[in-house]
């Protein structure tokens, strides 16, 4: 019966850097049902980070960037021989399961299954940082708009808040919030710039029984960075696994 299977042999370009962008499906409803605080909730943030850590441990990408319900995965070696249908199915399924496990471990009861979708984005090495800077810009817009909306919701209903904000530019949103006692530049960095998960050098101390001396060494450890800088090309040049591109792996 294999002749009835719809099968695609589409593969990612072997010379490209590959980003997978995972987006939560219907997460506005999910966050409302679960009672998460608006516009940002530390528990939701921690669940998203736990899903990123599971992806890091399973697939060892160069970098993961998350904000809101979005996860961007910069692959070092591309698994499944670069087959797009596998990337588009395994990664969102893995993220969905990881999010669910993270939620349950924190005592949350989800009323329906969680799902992510996925798109595969091949990029030239020289524009990787521009892609992530564009997503960081989106994180900032999301932060500004979310704070403006939920601040107005303290004063008016949903429709009036939407009408008030319709067409407002960034400067006007800043002014609106400042008049209500909020300086948006002072909210936590992870809300404004998102969160990075990547391997970074850490100095560790140990004991050498032969010399009977305390010694130090540098080890790579997974870091959850909630104080990200504005992305530059130099930031990505410093990532482990970014300088060398290993191509695709087998399934």
UniProtKB/TrEMBL annotation:
Gene3D superfamilies (alphabetical): 3.30.70.3000
Pfam family, one: Thg1
Domain tRNAHis guanylyltransferase catalytic: 1-122
GO biological process: tRNA modification
Gene Ontology terms, MF aspect: magnesium ion binding; tRNA guanylyltransferase activity
InterPro entries: tRNAHis_GuaTrfase_cat, tRNAHis_GuaTrfase_Thg1, tRNAHis_GuaTrfase_Thg1_sf
Superkingdom field: Archaea
PANTHER family associated with the record: TRNA(HIS) GUANYLYLTRANSFERASE-RELATED
Protein name in UniProt: tRNAHis guanylyltransferase catalytic domain-containing protein
Species: Methanothermobacter marburgensis (strain ATCC BAA-927 / DSM 2133 / JCM 14651 / NBRC 100331 / OCM 82 / Marburg)
